[in-house]
Amino acid sequence: LILTLINIQLENVHTFSPLHKASTSMGALILSLVFIVGCPGNLFVIWSILARARKQSVTTLLILNLAIADGSLMALTPFFIIYLVKQNWVFGNIMCKVLFYLCLANMYASIQLIMLMSVYRLVAVVWPQRVSIITSQKTVPRVLAVVWALVIIASVPAVLFREARENESRKVCDSFHDLCSHVVLQYTLEIVLGFLIPYTIIVVSYICILRRIRRTKFHRRIRSEKLILAIVLTFCLFWLPYHCINVVQVCHTVLFLCIILRSRAVTSSIAFMSSCANPVLYFFAGKSYIRREGLAFMARLFEGTGHLDDVVRLICCQKVCCKRRENVQDTTMT
Fold this sequence. Notes:
Blueprint: H1 2-13, H2 18-52, H3 58-86, H4 92-126, H5 131-134, H6 139-154, H7 156-161, E1 162-167, E2 170-175, H8 180-214, H9 223-251, H10 254-262, H11 264-285, H12 290-293, H13 297-303, H14 308-333
Antiparallel strand pairs: 1-2
């Protein structure tokens, strides 16, 4: 019964109501702005790291992978703009599955890469003696390969449930489910794997990092730390509305389902903004380099992310000094 009601609501959502038209128009406008900013922005980030950066750290490599994921999503944006403007899916069933699969993969890839940045900083600050293990030439590529493999597997539901179907005089590309358990499976995976678990790890990591830094004599703020924290907060801000709608679908809140699903075009477009926001953050974080470095300003910013190694060495030195003092005191007492 619940699934029947949900399917009825979905059919109503795809009608040409004023609210639906306003939602799709707003979504198309947002996506157009996202494409104008995000496509050249992410390409510039990739070029800066590959062509202009003299030194690459682990964080720089993660930012490169993040820019590749975001840039790939930006390349798909025109398809969704056309879909929203025409309010008709004209690209066929295979493209319906492929495009939304790639979108879901981008969401997973982005949050997993941001999580890796946070975990790397956690290990570097709290367990600095183990940094060399996770930053070796073999370990980093292997970790990235595992992450991308998980992203590919976790995005499979988009292929299984997305379909292009006739609805009145037009086609829609949407998720269609035969069982309630399929609804729960798809959106629970997105909520848990794409938001709750990684964000919990990120928050715990930064709490531990802040506690560790406060216990040392090193209290200077690090530009790269603030930059990554801004990336984390931006991702949360842009993706939270999307996941709130997923929660509604998982809970089968039929009373609010129609109204909330009509806003999915807007919330999904807002989620796309996270992929164009990072180059903007990099620009403002590195604007002090522009006058001196010109087009290489972003490369100098990313090189600065290696400053974390200096922090690690300082913390290690503090630990060594403390141990030496304790040993000296023990020796003098005996």
